[in-house]
Amino acid sequence: MLDLGNRMARFxxxxxxxxxxxxxxxxxxxxxxxxxxxxxxxxxxxxxxxNLVEIYKISRLYLYHFDFYxxxxxxxxxxxxxxxYFNPASICIVEWPEKAEDLLPIADLQITIKIxxxxxxxxxxxxxxxxxxxxxxxxxxxxx
Length: 144
Ligand SMILES: Nc1ncnc2c1ncn2[C@@H]1O[C@H](COP(=O)(O)OP(=O)(O)OP(=O)(O)O)[C@@H](O)[C@H]1O
Ligand SMILES: [Mg+2]
Hints:
The chain has 144 residues and is α/β, with parallel strands linked by helices. It is built from four helices and six strands; from the N terminus they run αβαββαβββα. Helix content is 27%, strand content 26%.
């Protein structure tokens, strides 16, 4: 997860929204940690489970790491005032996006982690033009 996040970081652009899905303990926070390290963040990356969001500034980039597990009602997302964080200058990574249902902006990349007997499997789906571009660059780079 750390290695995947590290490699993925190179292809992320400001403005991207990334959903991380998978059961409790699947490795979502660990993947986000890898992405942050890959972007050059060298300090401790905490799980946002209790604060709902952890905010990072890496040179001029803002990265918001959310965890909506504790939401009981999708409307809590609206009330928390998080909508303004989803803007062209920021990367937003969201654990448990399903807890905010369809109130959230559309994800550019949707990453689903599954736990198997031996290890994890990861599915990455791009549903917007910026998301597709990111995956294409990544594919090209990994194959070369
Ligand atoms: N690929 C992996 N193989 C083995 N252990 C892993 C892997 N990825 C993460 N872990 C470990 O699993 C535990 C849970 O990981 P993590 O906190 O990243 O999960 P999470 O999906 O964010 O869970 P939550 O839904 O509770 O936020 C951690 O101890 C982490 O080190
Ligand atoms: Mg987590």
